[in-house]
Amino acid sequence: MSSSVEITQRRLAATARGVGIMCDFYAERAENAEIWTTEGKRYIDFAGGIGVLNTGHLHPKVQAAVAEQLQKFSHTCYQVVPYESYVSAAEKINAKAPVGGTAKTFFLTSGAEAVENAVKVARAHTGRRGVIAFFGGYHGRTNFTLGLTGKVAPYKLGFGPFPADIVHAPYPNELHGVSVDDALAGIQKIFKATIAPTDVAAIIVEPVQGEGGFNVTPFDFLQALRELCDEHGIVLIFDEVQTGFARTGKLFATEHTGVAPDLITMAKSMAGGFPISGVVGKAEIIDAPAPGGLGGTYAGSPLALAAVDAVLDVIEEEQLCQRAQTLGDQLRARLEGLKGDIPQIRMVRGLGGMIAVEFMQPGSNEPDAAFAKKAQTHALENGLILLTCGMYYNVMRFLFPLTIQDNVFAEALDKMEAALRHAAQ
């Protein structure tokens, strides 16, 4: 077995510089919420593959389902030779999707593909071209989804030009001085100055911004978007790539909001680590593209669909929505309890198990990215993997597997607290 130093030398020589790497070690094996490196060190994983592992690393039921499918066939391309598991998974998701009517689903491979195809569907349905997205939003790394993404560094640097007919609107964030009324006024200004509402095919928004800082989009703002879309015949898309599949205490974060979008994009934790994504939405909108207009060579992989079926069963059988709320409440209470000792903690927020903490410099409204980085580094050195995010890199987010054992979760919270106290010194 090569050492991590040797592998790093090989990596630098063989792989692209633009693929940024956070850790200086290499995974050898993983189980539930724990990873062991090639050199035998154990880490508790609070990154979860960036929100992919709500059911943990190699959940036994997911592993068994994929192994069983692998004994049958691995690929035919669904558009050439279809298979029943695609239909069955769509039926399960349709029955649970909060889109306010009869639902249909189609599958793809990545979250970015789901977003692009949702926009394609909206354009086919409306015959329009424009799309409104929001500051701080994140929707993927393809050229089109980078155009939708509302954060420049590091995603958009050096990669333009981006597609036309994408407009960014202010995102309501009281901590950063933008009210719901301000954000709605911003959309009205867009309608006056940039693109008419009759030319807008879709508005896309995350119910909880992921990369943007785990900002919970105000529910009254989402309701206002619903009314605006109904008024002007615009398709409302909720991007649930990171929020879906029990992370927020509901199967979809949409269920918290009281608002029914027209389309929902899905990926990440829907297959327990296997690459698949999808779009679910109102049948009359989903069916707008003609046959052949949607799909992809790997879209709806039979291996990943076996995982989807198992993940949905695990979420129900192990009550992971309730588990997300329980763990999220414990984490939130721990962070809130540290405010008196750690003045950099400005806000703890989130839904269910999708929790983040934002750091500001004491006595000011200046984002404190240095504090977040110092705490993250200390945690990593002591066996806890944490992620930062936010427009100013001053937010720490927590994406632990919802299947994590109680004792491992308690150990991780102790390591997290130690890291925050160290950074405050």
TrEMBL record:
Recorded superkingdom: Bacteria
EC number: 2.6.1.19
Keyword Transferase: yes
GO molecular function: 4-aminobutyrate:2-oxoglutarate transaminase activity; identical protein binding; pyridoxal phosphate binding
Record flagged with keyword Transferase: yes
CDD domains xref list: OAT_like
Cofactor(s), names only, from the UniProt record: pyridoxal 5'-phosphate
Keywords carried by this UniProt record: Aminotransferase, Pyridoxal phosphate, Transferase
GO terms, biological process: gamma-aminobutyric acid metabolic process
Name of the protein described by the UniProt record: 4-aminobutyrate--2-oxoglutarate transaminase
Name of the gene this protein is made from: gabT
